[in-house]
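Q: How would the structure tokens look for this protein?
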Amino acid sequence: MQTKLADFIKNTPQGQEADAILRSCVHCGFCLATCPTYQILGDELDSPRGRIYLIKQMLEGQPVTKKTLSHLDRCLTCRACETTCPSGVRYGALVDIGRGVIEKQVKRDVLSNGMRYALMKILPNPRLFNTLLKTAQILGPLLPRKLQKTVPISSRSDHAWPVTNHARKMLILDGCVQPALAPNINIATARVLDYLGITLIKADQAGCCGAVTYHLNAQLDGLDYMRRNIDAWWPWVQQNGIEAIVTNASGCGVTIKEYGHMLQHDSAYALKAKAISDISRDISEVVYLELKKLKEKFSAQSFPDHQKMKLAFHSPCTLQHGMRIHGIVEEIMRVAGFELSYVPDAHLCCGSAGTYSILQPQLSKKLLSNKVTALESGRPEEIATANIGCLMHLRKQATRPVKHWIELLDERLSIGR
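A: Here is the predicted structure in token form.
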């Protein structure tokens, strides 16, 4: 795609990156077949190719309107188009650049600004989020019925964090909302790794990965969250023999793996950010490397028929399209004795997509309905996923229990412990 970027951006790092990405697009249209919003709306401007044209026009200095903003807002950033694209167009990076530019050129209304500001202040702040969640749960019966359905129910853990001190050590990102909504996920992760001879450590000063704020177009604030995490992890990485930084929320994981790219022009953090990204691992990658040990465990253990479970696995977009991790979780769960049901259109987004379900509720509900229908079509007993956002979103409509796959693996390992 030929481009002629406007003076305001052409000589900037963002402009140079955008120009290279735009030139890699050959207009083939393969992305239309896998774009969730295009499938629902049928408007090419709500497809990756259409949005690429809109971003190109904007970066070339042509006028943009609230209609352009709406088309970019409706993008899930699921990156299914990247998986499909034969030319390797880095659409996710391009749409981030485009959103950063249009946010400065098109004013949002007061309600939209207020909603986004509230999300940026509440979600990355675990203490504030936990307080508001508990208040909403206490007041739940007094709220209007429509609002009652939006208040998530927290789960509890019957287990404690392992205290064993192994020679092998890894860090974990505690997460923003996950400790309040599903504390068992982190504990189950620590217990599984403890079984595998790895001690999991939380760095107290680490916080939000930066994804929520960054993708709400407050990109400078998002980068500050990333720098804070690097500062919290760096002493551990330098001095304590940390093998990896583990994430069990794929939305956070894909972001941390891209710290090196996002901070490449920051002279104070570029090298550190790359080093952090290089040792960032989704929990599935860590467990998969220990699969031999799991096979030995489960081959010596026969499960009664009532403990054999048919499972549907929802692979989050950030796992399969962002990090390009395919089939690993499924193999781990088969080794653990689960039967995996077939899920049609498994590449499509569930509609959670960070804050998307709040900011684009109608499209999100349609995607959720389609995803739950697909997941439950094979009549599984339970549904597993790998991201807290997807987990909470699926629970709104699924008729089967929804858990993180690491919780189910921990349950299996607990049999006979």
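The domain at 7-105 is CATH 1.10.1060.10 (Fumarate Reductase Iron-sulfur Protein; Chain B, domain 2).

The radius of gyration is 22 Å.

Upvote if useful.
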